[in-house]
């Protein structure tokens, strides 16, 4: 299987961005963690970050036929983007929603996710380790659903 790990706005700043909320791990560290987890589970992965809503949508569209499933940390677009939600609905690929922080324990405006209703499931609150959990969850899902 091939999986796409898509990261949204401001996640390029991980490591220096609010480390008390998001931890000390950089996105580069997270990419390495994902590469190791994917290799251990015998799947290939692409790891992408963009600060631009339309670019994220383009990556979702381009995933059709190239990837079997997606892990999406949409950052703040999670809480605002009907366009991202529609893109996820349109591509017919299983998607795991991911957040480093526990969005349900934070400000009220982070409690609602436009991604959750179109995702297989959501993982949040486990920091960088959540990426490995999301890969396991997605690969497990792909194993039972094709
Ligand atoms: C985040 C949570 C979002 O609310 C926030 O806007 C982010 C990061 C997370 O990984 O915890 O940018 O998606």
Question: Top keywords for this entry?
Answer:
five-stranded parallel beta sheet, Rossmann fold, alpha/beta, DHquinase_II_CS, single chain, DHquinase_II, binds 1,3,4-trihydroxy-5-OXO-cyclohexanecarboxylic acid, 146 residues, globular
Biggest pleated sheet:
5 strands, parallel
Which band does the percent of strand residues land in? Answer: 15-25%
CATH architecture verdict = 3-Layer(aba) Sandwich
Overall structural domain count: 1
GO biological process, one term: quinate catabolic process
Family: Belongs to the type-II 3-dehydroquinase family.
Pfam families: DHquinase_II
Function: Catalyzes a trans-dehydration via an enolate intermediate.
Outline of the structure:
Helices cover 38% and strands 18% of the residues. The protein is of the alpha/beta class and 146 residues long. Strands 2-1-3-4-5 form a five-stranded parallel β-sheet, sandwiched between helices.
Characterize the structure shown.
One of its GO terms (biological process) is quinate catabolic process. Catalyzes a trans-dehydration via an enolate intermediate. Belongs to the type-II 3-dehydroquinase family. The chain is α/β, with parallel strands linked by helices and 146 residues long. The protein has a single domain (2-145), classed as Dehydroquinase, class II (Rossmann fold, 3-Layer(aba) Sandwich). It contains five helices and five strands. The protein has a five-stranded parallel sheet with strand order 2-1-3-4-5, with helices on both faces. The protein is globular and about 40 Å long. The mean pLDDT is 97. The structure holds 1,3,4-trihydroxy-5-OXO-cyclohexanecarboxylic acid. 1,3,4-trihydroxy-5-OXO-cyclohexanecarboxylic acid binds at residues 10, 73, 75-76, 78, 99-101, 103, 110.
């Amino acid at each position: 299987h091939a999986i796409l790990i898509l990261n949204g706005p401001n996640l390029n700043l991980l490591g220096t961005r609010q480390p008390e909320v998001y931890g000390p791990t950089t996105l580069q560290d997270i990419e390495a963690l994902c590469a190791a987890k994917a290799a251990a589970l015998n799947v290939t992965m692409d790891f992408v970050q963009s600060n631009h809503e339309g670019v994220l949508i383009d990556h979702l569209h381009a995933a059709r036929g190239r990837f079997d499933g997606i892990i999406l940390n949409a950052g703040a677009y999670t809480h605002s983007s009907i366009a991202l939600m529609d893109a996820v609905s349109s591509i017919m690929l299983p998607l795991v929603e991911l957040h480093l922080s526990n969005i349900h324990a934070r400000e009220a405006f982070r409690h609602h996710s436009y991604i959750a209703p179109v995702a297989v499931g959501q993982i949040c609150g486990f920091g960088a380790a959540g990426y490995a959990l999301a890969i396991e969850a997605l690969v497990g899902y792909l194993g039972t659903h094709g």
